Amino acid sequence: MSIAGPRHRYTFAEYLELEEAAGVRHEFYDGEIYAMAGGTPEHAAMAAAITAALVGQLALFYSAKLSPCRVYSSDLRVRVLATGLATYPDVTVICGPSERDPQSATHVTNPKIVVEVSSSGTAEYDRGDKLRHYQQIPSLDAVVLVDHEQPRIDLWMREEGGWRSRSFGEGEEIPLEVIGCTLEVDAIYAAAREA
To answer: β-strands 77-79, 104-108: how paired?
Structure first.
């Protein structure tokens, strides 16, 4: 009979040290460090299409000085202070100045919207535990979950009393009312088909 050895628990400071030296990205939660899966061209194309759509729409507001919101790529690190999760959403929107984690100037804590493009290895986590972590962020008003297999995008919106979800499919537009933008489902999946 074999007995599993004790698992090493990392501090957030140890995670930060590892992350700065690593050649791959990691998530941090509850003392554990998890390597993130590499993306596919389709995954990257969908994230880029979402980024481009949001940047294009918000640029109109920037020129009129109506929106203080900015769009960030998957290079942005987000920390959920309530649960300790540290991760890299595929797309993040922050409105106003970014607020930094008190323990790490490289992690922001105030996203308005996060977008996750799932993969076969992350779909269950993205729609389960990770979504519940994100919903603990006080500034967060919307989570967009993009299915990797079929044209289906779930929008989770914060409302009084909790969170409400709505699914969108082919031919539909996703209203991101909290930032005055929309996303076209067909355009996002067309980007993946062309990758």
So the answer is: parallel
Is the pLDDT at 63 greater than 60? The verdict is: no
> What SS3 state is found at 193?
helix
CA 121 to chain centre: 16
Helix/strand/coil for 30:
coil
- Vertex 171: Cα angle to 166 and 176 (nearest 5): 45
For the entire predicted model, the pTM comes to 0.91
> Which residue has tokens 């300790």?
84
One DSSP character per residue, 5-43 reads PPPPPPPHHHHHHHHHH-SS-EEEETTEEEEPPPPPHHH
The reported pLDDT for the residue numbered 2 is: 46
Confidence of residue 62 (pLDDT cuts 50, 70, 90): low
Domain architecture of the chain: domains with CATH: 39-193 (3.90.1570.10)
Q: Counting Cβ atoms within 10 Å, is residue 86 exposed (0-12), middle (13-18) or buried (19+)?
A: buried
